[in-house]
Amino acid sequence: MSGTTTMSGGTTPANFTDASGASAAFATYFGAGTSYTAFTGGGTVSVGGAATLGTSATAYTISGGTTAVADTSAGGNSITSTTNTTIFAAPNDTITAATGSTTLFGASSGQTTFSLGGSGSSVTGGAGDILGSASASNSTLVGGTGTSLFTVTGANNLVVAGQGGTTGVDLSQTTGAETIATNPLGNSGTLVATLGSGADSVIGGSGASTITAGSGNDVFGFVNGHAGGSEVIIGFNSNDTLAFGGYGYSASVTPTETVTGGSDVITLSDGTTITLVGVDHKLFS
Question: What is the largest CA-CA distance in the chain?
Fold first, then answer.
């Protein structure tokens, strides 16, 4: 332990309320009955288990064997992680992890900012905004209900649109295969994404999405019963593929298709619409 951090042990009370006045029980973070260490004053957190951060607008470093940290302060902290850990952010926290697998949950308000460099990391947005980058591989980023803006440069990552709000994804610097899911569970969030040079896969869902295709062989897939939204695809070309599952389409049974305003508009049987911007002819007839 370094800096001015102080700590005290305890067991999570079921009715704990954090310092920002949130009404949710502390069990939101760890579960009632979990042993934890409470830190205040900034400095290094290393306890080999669960911990809480009780001082706002300061700097903390998470190291050693700490496995889960909840910022229960009013937020505005700079949190640097040097180990594999789970972090529950408070409003306006900034999270930095150059190495290690980090699991990050965004805050219920304000803006969570992050920069993650470890492979296998995970980000889930909250009701607040979340903004950041993931530079390693095999990470999963899920938007929240606020505004979520993700920059991804590693390979083999999965990005899922948030349940509400807008999720923006910049994959333009990626070269490996990436996967994007646009509300596969019937949510209503909006997704805007730019693909890279790899063979990326986009799974269409509900809500509205706008996808700028990359230079690779991209696949845009739609599954009957899991779509129903509208997807606008910019830059679709002969290297790209539309894939349909469960619709019963064949060479003789094709989706409804019209050319409107110089773009091909395809309507599937579950109400999904796909607009291929700049494609001035029908693909299936």
Answer: 73
Give the number of domains in the chain.
2
Q: Per the domain annotation, does 186 fall within a domain? A: yes
Q: Using CA atoms, how far apart are residues 12 and 26, in angstroms rounded to an integer?
A: 7
The residue assigned the tokens 């991209």 is: 218
Looking at the fold, whether 257 and 203 belong to one and the same domain comes out as yes
pLDDT digits (tens, 9 = 90+) for 182-231: 887 777 889 999 999 999 999 998 889 999 999 999 999 999 988 789 99
Q: Are residues 159 and 86 in the same domain?
A: no
- Please give the model's pTM, rounded to 2 decimal places: 0.89
User: Domain ends where: 114, 146, 165?
Assistant: 114
Q: Would you give the end-to-end CA distance of the chain in angstroms?
A: 69
Does an H or E element contain 275, and which? strand 273-277
Neighbour count for residue 82 (Cβ, 10 Å) = 17
Phi-psi map region of 197: left, alpha, beta (phi>0 left; psi -120 to 50 alpha)? alpha
- Please write the tens of the pLDDT for every residue from 168-188: 999 999 998 999 998 877 778
* 98/238 same-domain check: no
Is-contact 136 160, C-beta < 8 A? no
Q: Which residue has the tokens 């395809």?
A: 266
Structural domain harbouring 193: 137-285
